[in-house]
Design goal:
The chain is mainly alpha-helical. It contains eight helices and no strands.
């Protein structure tokens, strides 16, 4: 990857963090997160070279999984809910990983995204930072596709 492309990737990390938080903040609709974060994730994937029509499928799945924390409504989220949330964010990108034969990178991406999401959400008690972190981790984790070529 061209080093100059790190600048847009860093900006996408920030944008995803903001959109993720907006989706949970009072006065904003959850669709900021639901539509925004998958769009940013797909743009990031394109920048790092994951160019394939299956990104459209990944966007749709990512949109769907952004709408839940894998728990009952009103129930407090536990670490395993957050782990499942990160896992499902990663699974959304299975189609593009499969079609581009990037399974090794996908495995690392999945392990990192699910684990980092669980640890971050379990340890950070400030809801603003917690939500921003989850949005940022979604984009940061895509670095696995740069590491494992």
């Amino acid at each position: 990857m061209n080093p100059i492309l790190f600048i847009p990737e860093i900006l996408l990390v920030v944008v995803s963090a903001i959109l993720y938080r907006m989706g949970g903040a009072a006065g904003y609709n959850t669709k900021w997160r639901d539509f925004g974060c998958p769009t940013v994730a797909v743009v990031s994937a394109l920048i790092i070279g994951l160019c394939h029509w299956s990104l459209a499928i990944s966007w749709l799945v990512c949109f769907a999984v952004m709408t839940t924390y894998w728990k009952r409504k009103g129930q407090d989220a536990s670490w395993y809910h957050w782990w499942t949330t990160g896992l499902m964010y990663a699974v959304a990108f299975l189609p593009v990983a499969y079609f581009l034969s990037r399974i090794e990178a996908f495995v690392f991406f999945t392990i990192f995204l699910s684990t980092a999401t669980a640890i971050w959400s379990a340890l950070v008690s400030n809801v603003v930072w917690e939500e921003c972190g989850r949005g940022a981790i979604l984009i940061i984790a895509q670095g696995a596709f740069l590491i494992f070529r």
